[in-house]
Request: fold
Amino acid sequence: MLGDGILKGLAETAKNFAGSFVSKERMTTVEYPEERLPLPEAARNFPFLVYDGDDWEKGLRCVACQICEKECPPKCIYIEKSKDKKPDYVGKPQIYPAKFDIDISVCMSCQICVEVCPFEAIKMNTEFELATDDRFDGLLLDRKQLARSNEYYHQIHPTEASEVDARLAEEKAKVEAKAKAAAEAAAAKAVTAPATGAPAVPDAAKPAAQAEPKPAPTTKAAEVAKASAMATAPAAPKPVPGTGTDGPAPMTTEDRKNAETPAKTNEGEPKA
Amino acid sequence: MIERLDQIFVLLKHWLLGYLPESWQTPVGVIISVACIVGLYPALFAVTTVLERKGVGRIQNRLGPNRVGPYGILQPMADGIKSLTKEDIVPTSADAVVHFLAPIILVVTVFMGFAVLPMGRNMVLVDMDAGLLFYFAMGASTELSVFMAGWSSRNKYSLLGAMRAVAQMISYEVALLLSSVVIVMMTGSLSLVKIVEAQNHYSYGLPHWYIFTPWGFAAFIMYAIAGTAETNRSPFDLPEGESELVAGYHTEYSGFKFALFFLGEYVAMFSISGLGSTLFLGGWMAPLSGLQFIPSWIWFFGKLFVSMCVFIWLRGTLPRLRQDQLMNFAWKFVLPMCLLNLFVAALWRFMGDGWLRWIVCSAILIVAYFSIGREGMRRKHFGPRSYRYAA
Amino acid sequence: MSSSGMKTEKLPGWNRPPVIDTDGEGELLEVAMGPHHPSTHGVFRMDVVLDGERVIRLKPVFGYLHRNHEQLGQSQSYLASMPYTDRLDYFCSLTNNWAYALAVEKLVGQEVPERAEYLRVILAELTRVQNHASTIGFLLQEMGASGTPLMYAFREREKILDLFESLTGSRMMCNYMRFGGCRVDASPAWLEATRKVVAGLPAFVDEFERFLMTNEILMARCQGIGILRPDLAVNAGISGPMLRGSGVNYDIRKIDHYGIYDRFKFRVPLGDHGDIYDRYMVRMLEMRESISILNQALKELPGGPVMDPKAKIRNFRPKPGEAYGRIEAPKGELGFYLISDGSPNPYRYRVRPPSLINLTVLEDMCLGSNVADVVLIFGSVDIVLGEVDR
Reply:
């Protein structure tokens, strides 16, 4: 019959009209800004710099290695190294960025800087209400504006943050074990040759070193499996964020290069 | 009491006129009625725009405007302020006088059509003997203003749009007239008041509306299609189609003149719906004899509201027809059906009372509809297809 | 190929369109449709010469969105080009990523783990579904249905984009594939959500199909319009649903056997007439086939890593050589041609954009038809200006 397709179309629209009053499926409007949709955990907008502890200058994880600046596709990161070194949380002196600017009007949120950072220092933020009326400097974020605490990181990306903390704690424990072994060897040597005291070893009771420091094989798959095993370790207390006593392990760049893990799981473990 | 409520506007008018001397009463009475119409229909237009946007929004699974006023009711105020404060741009090479007159003529002729519509019992502005003829004369004048708009803009796109619009309106004018002529034939009068009176009896509680007869139903469908095309509404809105050459005949109009065109289109919709309900749906009659206590003007405006909803529904659902398909449809489908309808209506009268005439008339119309429809689709090779898959 | 209803006359040289003779009276109207136009899919201009309502000549003018994509690709490393490929065909970023990753993997001979292949297939087919739904929605929008079917298509597309966001971090610019696998693994929660979305898709496709198959106005406006002859299509290098709508059986998933498409059973729909209606129905049927592939892939998804452990991200220097990697993108054959000379940047980086190649026959399809049809024919080519102009 001529016209029955039209009638079917009309029936379809009427169904949608009536349904828009009763079902959520047929009324998809979310009235921003009164209501907001929750962002998924993996959402990314612009980068931020993570710091541990309460003082953002002292706790900044970034060591100005400039890898992210090199790898950034639109070249929106601008880093200047400092002339002096600041002590890291465990006391080892590291250079830090005197200037770390990201131009978020250029940044395309590709997350490559996060992927290549060896020090877990730069992560993706989820803030998107960044509109400003300052044409020139409003969208150029400097070091202070970019620095957010580790607690904030746990808030926005909880699983990722706990994995990062676990990985860092494990690395630190490894380094400490090595340092302790070296100290013991030096102490043994010092016994035979009574020299001045053993080199100061930064040691303190590290309460949250929950992962046993396995001698780390450097294959990526094993790292991944370890991270996942730790994430599911049953009674593992979450690393207490930002208390400062168990900050990230001071590591050399060479160590970190070997431990580069391009594949990081988002949450849970792969279906093994 | 019920009658007082029904006649409340008439009584009000008479009471007001009672304060005036004899010789002044008729002119002032006319002025009061005209003022009411000119005040009421733009207000309805404002409400209809919100209704349309919210209705189409709900059809599309979203809310319509809801920021200005509760549920967006005050949105037309915002739109009105916007269009009033916009700069009125007239192209330099445009014919200024014609450019200025076009929207005015549109609005004036569209409002003239309301002079003969009975909006309630005893509530018609002028009870002309040839009311229907007057109405169609005014309706045809709207096409003049559309062409004036396109011509005076000195713009290729506007001209194209205007020509298309005029061609479309002329073709469907014929269909409109022929479907109303059936009613005139059966009633024996051109006066709209008498047409409503002819429908004004009930049997078994059901009214004698013309739509409940086979020829009336067919005529109503043809009238609805032609009415939608007359007012350039979807699915016949190619002249003002946004996907084609910009905005058609009102491209060069900005600000308040554009608002006047918009107003003219919607008031024309009201006007056509009003005529349609007068001719086919009994005007101000109640649908069931038991509901006659509700005032007649409420029924009239209720039918107007339902027609608006159907227009909005059609707009939200159907895509546009192309110009030549539109005209094909008018001349090759609607017109033959209307002519056949005339014949069927005459047959109805000829066969006298009884159930036989229902069956015969319905059968003729249904067979004609199916055969013309199928023939039209088949000649163009339209139809659902089946698809094959590669191995 | 030349099946029922299609006349295939030989024309002397396919790129010389036949001359449509005007009546000799009246003047020809030259109109530029675009670049500001509500229904060109982006900034695109068509210079049409009209005789009344009929199209005599049509010249597409593009380049308004040229962003130097290939030049940029040659001046930065291989990894840094990956986020730029998202922005080529911005509707289907994941398939762009896959094509580029495929090209680079061919260049260096990189292996991809199995779980990553399955994830790639799942995401590519989800992309195909949402792209075809949006295309059909845009067709109906251009026909004037005031956007209603478009809103329905976008409602489903939002669900798929939410999936993308929870996996890759971004709705449209996903930047997810890497040379050697995928960037992150998919969690069981994500797979569960995907299963739910895929389970809801057939009902939506049915609803959508009802709009297309039986609506008389749509049939009157789409059937018999914009016919593309199969021999012309093959000669011009058309690919994708446009080619299959004209009846040519060419689907790169079946021909190149890239990825693991051999393991899935799916059919390739073909049209007979080559008009707009056929192209849209081919897309609709492809949506159904994609849903079936998704169901199979979600069921068979194995465990394991999603990235080859030996793959390098930084300091990636492939040996000198060249490679051409192509996939069946939703719009057609998307290919990346890379020449490497041993340095971290490619020596030559070239994108074969399906939208641009498909546009070259626009004039042939539009000659003799009405202006109102030009818009529809143009919509049925399904272009994205990001790809045309790069």
User: Anything to note?
Assistant: The CA atoms of residues 227 and 275 of chain C lie 4 Å apart. Confidence is low (pLDDT under 50) at residues 1-17 of chain C.
